[in-house]
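Researcher: First entry.
Model:
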Amino acid sequence: MRNVTKENITDVFISYMADDMPPRTREVMTSLVRHLHDFARETNLTHEEWREGIAFLEGCAAIETEDRHEFVLLSDVLGLSSLVDMLHSSPNATSSSVLGPFHVSGAPPLPVGGDMKRDFGGPVLLAEGTIRDTDGKPIPGAVLDIWQTAPNGLYASQDDDQDMFSFHGLMTVGDDGRYAFTTVKPVEYTVPSDGPVGGILNACGRHPWRPSHLHYIVTAPGYRSLVTEIFPDDDPYLDQDTVFGVREDLVMSYKEKPASEFPDGLALSGKVTEPFLAVQFDVTLARE
């Protein structure tokens, strides 16, 4: 096409695509470019703004490392990660939520009833529940990948004072589908705001805070994998999570209990001498 104009450039782009390209790729690319071109036309995007946008993307790429995922963070703070989660959540299962940029693969096995608190300060938190199918039946052998922040608000991948798998564990449940572990109460924290994504937050007058939460990835053969988080109902940032991760069914309550009520059969049984926090949260998986 030798006569490309601002009115026809979108159609020209589409005409350049091969006839035999995969249909889904054609659908996604067509929609992406239509919206991208419409955005530029609607805002009358300037050369300076275009250069600033390119520099922003290059800045994200420059700061990317094995432990720092700036593009994931960008997707999170724009709400795209949560939107994709919600588009593909099963209505009969536990809601999905954002993975976030701090998951570390290969966590060590954590037995049912195991402890992740170790020598960290703060009251003990006992988290337990049952992994079920949509009929309410336990799912034997389901695997729960758990991670969270330390009391200082940092994930292990952010903190040189923690080992790589601090506050990470991989638990395989038994025939009853029950999981249980002890840890510390997670704290609210800020997403990294020292990079390009922090510039977006500042430009929009937004804060970088997330409510405290526990991360779960739950998998089982024959079921859809679930990436989710659970949030306490008393967190001050529950209604203004900067990555839009909160869902109504993911909000739970911590209950303070006396040490005398700490149950048997756990790694810390007989060792808890002060009041502890307890939360019960069941997880429902949908079949594939």
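Researcher: Second entry.
Model:
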Amino acid sequence: MISKISINFRPDDVDAIPVIEKIISHCQRYPIDVFLPDYKILKERGYSSFIDEDSFFSPDLAIAIGGDGTFLKAARLFSNKGCPIVGINRGKLGFLTEFNPDEFELYFQDIIMGNYLISERTVMEAIHKNNSCDSLIFFNDAVITKGAFSRAVEIEISVDDLFLTKYSGDGLIIATATGSTAYSLSAGGPVVAPFDNEVIVLNPVCPHSLSLRPLILPAKSLIKARVISNITNLLLTIDGQEAIRFSGGDEILFRLSDKKMKIILHPKKNYYAILREKLNWG
């Protein structure tokens, strides 16, 4: 049985408070401790007793209330713990936040008793090969962009130390199967069902070439990308939440991480049903 639960949500999401109240009320019937982030709106509403930073980062179960961005934030916060995460959708699309607030209570009892299914998703690592060797993990995608510049940049890519291509365009997306329904999809990439997570999508953004298309690669591939153009203030954006600035000539490495993102699945939904619902398929 679960004994420690941490809840993450956006610091300004006042409408998440009633959902949090229901979770706390339910947990108080059992020997389950609930921990909340150190947010001003929680302190103002009398939840200070649930705020404990050390305990917050070491739960048995994490709950993310919001959209996919909030879920990815929770995955980053608890990546070292490796605990399962359940998402309650208060966003728009919500591919990762599979439960609705109104129905979550129906399944919460089973979840805290450990009766749930987990999908383990691939986690990747992006490394900026400079003096400090900046490294960040990503769950959805890592994106090389040209920052504020309006002109195209030239990017050279190799896979497992073998030259792949060189092209001019707006950037590059490296997406996991989980992230294939995010930015990569908007950039013309394929939807990759996350049943076999050991693949990634290499997706050039607006390449100045009719023949250069998105490419599916094994997740264990070592991808090296280098912006050849002599430009500073380029950006490597991680899951749309964190960014590393770099300059032309710097090398960015993408490789498989030994971490996994563990998602608690909705017992009454399947991946194809979620695709139909979120993408408005017939």
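Model: Note on the second entry: The domain at 123-258 is CATH 2.60.200.30 (Tumour Suppressor Smad4).
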